[in-house]
Design brief:
The chain is built from five helices and eight strands, in the order ββαββααββαββα. The protein is an alpha+beta fold. The strands form two sheets. Strands 1-7-8-4-3-5 form a six-stranded antiparallel sheet. The chain has a two-stranded antiparallel ribbon with strand order 2-6. The longest helix has 23 residues.
């Protein structure tokens, strides 16, 4: 699957239903029938929506961890806490569970944004704050992460 592209403002209704933006529906059309996994993000107060094939690839790595090491077992439990299998309904909406809405602090206005092969789902205010907070450090972060490859050549 190719990387997803786009950031869209949406609304979530009082029942937790979110209409997936049509641009994402088009990009995900080849994997839509397999469903998705929705989970809490590790580093931010947002949700991550994985196409099933991406989730399975990630879980292959997780399942290689030795579960007889407490640290690994704790990580697996926390990483998969609140994970939900998601299918779009006939109207192209996905249902976000109340516990995940609470975790992400979602109100009516949200942002759905591509991050590589997954989508992040944010409360709009939290998304804007995270982007604004990151602006200050982004130049240094970009240099550190992308500035040089393993050989020291940029």
């Amino acid at each position: 699957m190719n990387s997803l592209i786009g950031t869209y403002e949406c609304k979530i209704d009082s029942k937790g239903r979110l209409m997936l933006p049509s641009a994402f529906k088009k990009q995900l059309s080849s994997v839509m029938q397999d469903g998705f996994v929705l989970k809490r993000a590790v580093f931010q107060s947002c949700l991550e929506l994985y196409p099933m094939s991406e989730w399975e690839t990630l879980m292959q790595k997780v399942n290689k961890l030795n579960r007889f090491k407490k640290k690994n077992n704790d990580f697996i439990r926390r990483f998969t806490a609140g994970v939900k299998f998601i299918e779009l309904d006939a109207s192209g909406r996905l249902l976000v569970a109340k516990d995940l809405i609470a975790f992400a602090g979602m109100s009516k206005n949200i942002v759905v944004s591509s991050v590589g092969n997954i989508l992040e789902i944010w409360d709009k205010e939290n998304y804007e704050k995270a982007i604004d907070d990151a602006v200050v450090d982004f130049a240094d972060l970009a240099e550190e992460v992308m500035g040089q490859d393993e050989d020291g050549i940029s």
